[in-house]
Amino acid sequence: MNYTTANHSSKEEPSFGFEPTFVYPVATCYILIVTVAIFGNLLVCYAILVNKNLRNNPTNLFIFSLAFSDLLIVIIAVPFDIEGLFLQWHWKHGEIMCKAWITVYLITVPTSILTLLAVSVDRYKSLSDPLNRFRRSRFMTRKRALIISLVIWLYSLLFALLPIMGWRTEERFVYNSVCYFPFHLEYTTLISSLNFILPLLITCAIYIKIYLIARKQHNFGGAESRKLRSTEEIKVYSKNVRAAKTISIFVGAFFCCWVPYSSISIVATLCETCSNHIPCEVRIVLLMFGYLNSALNPFLLAFRNSRFKAAYNMVFKSAPLHQILPIYTNTRFVLTRRN
Per residue in 262-291, pLDDT tens? Predict the structure, then answer.
């Protein structure tokens, strides 16, 4: 969310007056983030779409949802932040685009957090029940992952549309040539609690449990390891531990990138006096770190996965893109064998 939405009740024309020594380095960082995020997340989405083996993995469907969410925010939301740096945040695109800009943020950030929570639950279940893969009815199937992802998107969309449908303090979205969203305090508190603070706390609690399980079963010396019936089952359990560690890195990155900006936004919303003492430059830089998460996600999740690496090798070795799909179709068994 852009920092101009922080003080929703104020109708005074803001005066930013950013110095070129601040604008150009920050804008350069924003552009780099957008470039890397678009390239990385497009590769993730493309690999999952064209590779059946990747598509059939429920966790990869969550990763696709995360990548698509990151693409939306860097393609639709971030460019307006970059423009605002150079135009002193004067909005020149009308109220419809102002609504679209803020709504995309309100959809994509909660979607990322809630999808992360779903992945965390899946990882926890995989470790707490190591034989789950061999049961007739697995905890997380492809169909369930699709349904959960769809529900998360619909839930986030509903919350994002509530102000547009009438739950707001003002009718106008552009005032004094500045795009802002007139949130009610109750709405801001609710969306911050339900779509950010609570999911992150639950995710952190789950990973504490995952850490305790992994520590207890280190080297398969615990009682749970004796339930494993074969070398294949032990291999699956070890793979789940590695996957949980990878997701924990992602959780930590998301926490470090978004919590600072979200914290000052919540403080600014609940305390108008405090908001006046937070420099605009601080908000812009912290928001930039939030967007940085969209560029990091492909490297933290998909690019660390051996199947994704094999898929990307095929992409880069096959120059004409129209040849990639047949290559994936003919070599899916080879990719499976490699991993």
Answer: 888 888 777 777 777 888 888 899 999 989
In the block, residue with structure tokens 């002193």: 88
**CA 311 centroid distance within chain:** 22
Is pTM beyond 0.85 here?
A: no
**Contacts (Cβ under 8 Å, ≥6 apart) of 279:** none
In order, the DSSP letters of 225-275 are: GGG--SHHHHHHHHHHHHHHHHHHHHHHHHHHHHHHHHHHHHHHHH-HHHH
CB-CB contact of 44 with 302 (8 Å): yes
Q: What is the pLDDT of residues 168-216, one digit of tens each?
A: 777 777 877 888 777 888 888 888 888 888 888 888 888 788 777 766 6
Mean of the pLDDT values across residues 30-56? 89
Which has more confidence, 84 or 327? 84
Q: What is the DSSP string of 126-186?
A: HHHSTTGGGSSS-SS-HHHHHHHHHHHHHHHHHHHHTTTTT-SS-S-SEETTEE-----HH
Tell the burial category of 138 from Cβ atoms under 10 Å away from its Cβ (0-12, 13-18, 19+). middle
**Rounded CA separation 36/294 (Å):** 9
Q: CA-CA distance, 294 to 97, in Å (whole number)?
A: 22
213: helix, strand or coil: helix
